[in-house]
Give the backbone structure.
Amino acid sequence: MKNLTKYYLDKEILFKEINEVLPKELGSRKKIGIYVGTSVSKDYYAIFIVDAKSRFIRKNANDLIELCEKLANFQEHNFKKKELIISSAICSKAKKFLKENKWSVRVDFM
């Protein structure tokens, strides 16, 4: 979590509160980091961190959007900012699909 706050501090986003949600709480078995944060400017963030060796494809993007909907139901809140932070390669179709659904995709983490 320290790396995450430092990463966003470099992007000039300061969080007032940030909490981790385990994928198991959402009924998922995926190995993904899920964080819910509130910035100082009162924007609500849903942050998903994927650290995989294989390419992130369109099917994974569909699963991610589904997981975000479960998170919104679990937290009883719709998030203003949805972000995917990924360290592996991402398929151009998956990136375009996420952008169309108002996601921010960052490939430069860790």
In short: The domain at 2-106 is CATH 3.40.1350.10 (Trna Endonuclease; Chain: A, domain 1). DSSP finds three helices and five strands in the chain. The chain has a mean pLDDT of 89.
